[in-house]
Amino acid sequence: MDEQAFKDKTKRLALRVIALVEALPKRIAAQVMGRQLMRCGTSVGANYRAACRSRSTPDMLAKLAIVEEETDETFFWLEQLVDSDTIPRATVAELVAEADEILAMTVASIRTLRSRR
Question: Whole-model pTM?
Answer without folding.
Answer: 0.93
